[in-house]
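Hi Prof. W.,

I finally got the Cryptochrome/photolyase family protein prediction working! I wasn't sure whether to trim anything, so I left the full sequence exactly as given:
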Amino acid sequence: MPTLVPILGDQLSHSLAALRAVPKSDAVILMMEVAEEATYVPHHPQKIALFFSAMRHFAEELRQAGWRVDYVPLDDPANTGSLSGEVTRAATRHGTARTLAVKAGEWRVLTAQQHWPNVTLLDDDRFLCSIDQFAAWAGPRKRLIMEDFYRIMRRQTGLLMDGDQPIGGQWNFDTENRKSVPKGQRFTPPIRFAPDAITAEVLALVNARFHNHFGTTASFAWPVTRTQALAALDDFITHRLAGFGDYQDAMVTGEDVLNHSLLSPAINLGLLGPLEVARAAEAAYQAGHAPLNAVEGFIRQIIGWREYVRGLYWFAGPDYTARNHLAATRPLPALFWGTPTGLKCLAEAVSATGRNAMAHHIQRLMILGNFAMLTGTDPSQVHRWYLAVYADAIEWVEAPNVIGMSQFADGGLMATKPYAAGGAYVNRMSDHCKACRYDVKQRTGPKACPLNSLYWDFLARHEEVLSSNQRLWRIYDGWRRFAPDEQQRIRTQAAHFLATLA
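And this is what came out:
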């Protein structure tokens, strides 16, 4: 009697623990496209297409490698529409003795896995830090500072290390990575992968079934195989890594990518391993092809931030996405779904998201996330939106970035202060304000940038909760220096804008 081995859409690694644990002759690989996973939030059509195409390509690779693969497409008339339904149906169909699977990357699916027939669940060892290792580190701490964790990971992997000390004499070069882009600067566009027959079939299916979801598949060019993912990695290392550090926090109108890697979807799907990506960047530094500030900043995102948020997600527990420290209740504003807005920075970020199922981290944190937090938007709704619209959004990575980092809804478990900003930050890090209908230098009045009054109103609303934060005392001191009538004008300005969001 064979062993049923279900493989999920973000487990597309030939070195997956379940594939290592059972002989090919004893296994039936089960892969499933199910409506439940495509619709529990209204995923961006490109995201759905990326998963389905990568899954179909991976299934074909497994067949060519000698595995017996049972692939259930979305349009199979017998498809039950759920993972558990398909696992149960396959166990009966193949008469399997047991089910062997790698633990899912989110609480919702893990809970379902635990009820699969005769199931044994294996730890996902594709990560550099196990869930137990992270819990042992986090358990004694009141605050989970990523920088502390990152140094442990640097020492554990040996990346950019000289013995026990960091190469260059410091761990973090972030202060060198906040430059605005000079006028006229041009960026090398990333490699694009034209849809093959498999991807074209998937795109037709997705466009027919999910055309009412936010976003378009018109620009679909993601890597959907390991070969393509390796080509994308080489393209980034060769053409964009050297400039990644300087402009990683910058925003430029009409430039969706700048020097970002666009590798997170391929890593999260399993087409690339985090350590091989980090080592490729380190090799570029060692060869003199990229400066240390760029390479360190990129490696920190891979072995520091990525591993950290995954560990925090599991450490915080299944109710993490329900946290709401600032008691925010506003419904998600319609502009997040593409309703026109006069704020240029928001319009750029939302339109890039719709076109590409991608926006870079500063757009996500300091434009979209900042706006949601300043307006008091319900963090659970913000979380569901991010989970829906980004190609790299799997809950273990998305939820901590939104609930903790972006919305401060976990009360500071991961972030030492809310990442709040007014128009001055956007003006410093982008060219958007020059083409905006609002004046970034005004706090009040009909032309005033809404972010300015929203910023101070946010601080005033939450003064009782936030004023004791050591990183905010100077800001609150500035607020208190405003004359009472100026404070009132600012808060009235914010209230008028917030009323328009209803």
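The longest strand covers residues 27-32. Does that look reasonable to you?

Thanks,
D.
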